[in-house]
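Researcher: I'm preparing a figure for a lab meeting and need a structural model of a single chain. I don't have an experimental structure, so a prediction will have to do for now. The sequence is pasted below. Please return the structure as tokens so I can convert it later.
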Amino acid sequence: MTLDQLRARSRQLSHAVTMVLVILLLALSIELFAIGSGRYPHAWLLFHRLPMFFYLWAIWAVQRAIASISRGDVFGLVVPRLLTQVGLALFLGGIVNVFVAPILIKLVTGRGGLAAYDVAAITLGVVGLALVVVAQLLRQAAAMRAELDEIF
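Model: Understood. Here is the structure written out token by token.
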């Protein structure tokens, strides 16, 4: 695949990711409108949507990285930033899903536990932390390569 083909595919993928982001934001807006209008009687269930903000951040970071690559930005600089942002978003989303949302629901309703056993959220959190570590390794590798390039 040539560089021009990669940029063209990146533009297409950027548009597709943007559509996913818009659809998710639209769905969240509909839920918020339903709660605000009083048509949704259990507003406290919105606490289950708190992780969604972090997952939207991850999708937004992916879209920005793909757009950067389509503009011709240096791949080695884009990827570590992408992995860090997506990793943090997934980790924080998992933490909110497992701990924060259940605690808030318990505070509001007096029911429920202090944590939720959600294998998917726990997995996302662990993968998120791994992405942050990999991003740091990529940054260190880039710094070592730059140092070697200066020597030779």
